[in-house]
Amino acid sequence: MMVDVKKVYDTFIAKGVDFFTGVPDSLLQSICAYITDYTPKEKNIIAANEGAAVGIAAGYYLASNKIPLVYMQNSGLGNAVNPLLSLVDERVYKMPMLFMVGWRGEPGVKDEPQHKKQGEVTIGLLEAMGISFTILDDQEELALQQIERAVDQVRNECIPHVLVIRKGVFGKYKLQNQMRNDYPLSREDALKIVVNHLDEHDIVVSTTGKLSRELFEYREILGQGHAKDFLTVGSMGHASSIALGIALEKKGRNVFCFDGDGAFIMHMGAISSVGDLSPVNYKHIIFNNGVHESVGGQPTVAFKLDIPVIAKACGYKHVFVAKTEMEVLKDLTEMKGLEGPVLLEICVKIDSRENLGRPTTSPIENKNDFMNYLKNG
Ligand SMILES: Cc1ncc(C[n+]2csc(CCOP(=O)(O)OP(=O)(O)O)c2C)c(N)n1
Questions:
Q1: Do 183 and 347 contact (CB within 8 A), yes or no?
Q2: Which residue's alpha carbon is nearest to atom 6 within ligand 1?
Q3: How deeply is 78 buried, as exposed, middle or buried, from its count of CB atoms within 10 A (0-12, 13-18, 19+)?
Q4: CA 37 to chain centre
Q5: 22 CB under 6 A from ligand 1?
Q6: Closest to 113 in 3D by CA, of 359, 375, 373, 374
Q7: What is the pLDDT of residues 186-215, one digit of tens each?
Q8: Whose CA is nearest to atom 1 of ligand 1?
Q9: How many angstroms does the Cα of residue 296 sit away from the middle of ligand 1?
Q10: Distances from the Cα of 257 to the Cα of 75, 213, 342, angstroms
Q11: Which residues contact 168 (CB under 8 A, 6 or more apart)?
Q12: Is-contact 101 350, C-beta < 8 A?
């Protein structure tokens, strides 16, 4: 049984919930797509991170006295905890807010390692925060009643309430207003060009989502093993900081951060430390497709930003933008002779393979191999 996302959306609207903000999630893909297609842009704000979404929702409530809806993957609860407890909570400003949280890693449901712990503790986390919640039923009529009741509770008691969304509860819906761009390279094409250009001892910290999966597969094809790569499978937005910690400690190694635009934006403030500490061996590559491609292609604001200028203003020494293979190769060659931090933004099209696999080694194996390589290699 599944719940039709049109009916869910119509229920929100009928109950006066018509403002949406959040960070997309694969389990919420169809409802987020429906919201995107049927909501004016200024009433559906894809935020930099989940905490920022709570902030935007709080501002909306203060100015409208209406209930906002915040959507996120349960991985994003961590980013939202601070504003939930120090802003929204009933002992602080006591704000009415409806949440939709995708439950990755639900116990008993097969999922990737980075979702297991988060999935196990999701309900406990909500309980510990004293936030009321409803696990949405997969029977449509019941689910719609649950939503109505949740909105009533939020309104009557002026508190937050979380709708927990299990895998497969929402029926399919395909985004009509799909983002497009005409850049020639895909993320995977660009990744291969960069990997081919790495020196033997260069190491890589790669971001959350499909980029790390593509890197893993390409190293398999090349028969190079995976010891040079730290795959940041969870912890979205922190790859650049992990790379910084390594670069400062291992000054003789080039440390590449392979970042996504959504991840870069999520914790953009982190690069102020990169610029400030300015490790000469730090190389930041942003694979910018302008969307959260890994979870359904919802837009980011990345093509409206001047990422190289932001990096330069934070203290990076050299910055580049490339759109074609020729440009990427030219920039990579030039970067070899330069002291970092260096940033290269590669604009890529929105694309990924249907048959893309997942890492076959565990995160702990990855960590041990990587640390051994750093120690000995
Ligand atoms: C804190 C947190 N929020 C949301 C997610 C879900 N998530 C995984 S990958 C991803 C999109 C990443 O987008 P981007 O960095 O632009 O890379 P792309 O997939 O486009 O290559 C999202 C939102 C997550 N893993 N962690």
A1: yes
A2: 25
A3: middle
A4: 21
A5: no
A6: 359
A7: 999 999 999 999 999 999 999 999 999 999
A8: 76
A9: 10
A10: 21, 15, 10
A11: 2, 138
A12: no
Candidates 100, 214, 292: which one to mutate for ligand 1, based on the most atoms within 8 Å of Cβ? 292
Helix, strand and coil in the chain, % to nearest 5: 50, 20, 35
User: At 199, phi and psi to the nearest 5?
Assistant: -80, 165
Distance from residue 315's CA to the centre of ligand 1 (Å): 26
Cβ density class 272-310: b for 16+ within 10 Å, e for less: ebbbeebbebbbbbbbbbbbbbbbbbbbbebbebebbeb
**Could you tell me if the CB of 11 is within 6 A of ligand 1?**
no
| pLDDT, tens digit, 9 for 90 and up, residues 301-332 | 999 999 999 999 999 999 999 999 999 999 99
CA distance 77 to 233: 17
Interval between CA 367 and ligand 1 midpoint (Å): 21
The amino acid at 323: K
- Choosing from 27, 73, 99, 208 the residue with most ligand 1 atoms within 8 A of its CB, the one to mutate for a pocket test is 208
Residue 25 CB–ligand 1 contact under 6 Å: yes
Q: Average the pLDDT over 109-138 and give the result.
A: 97
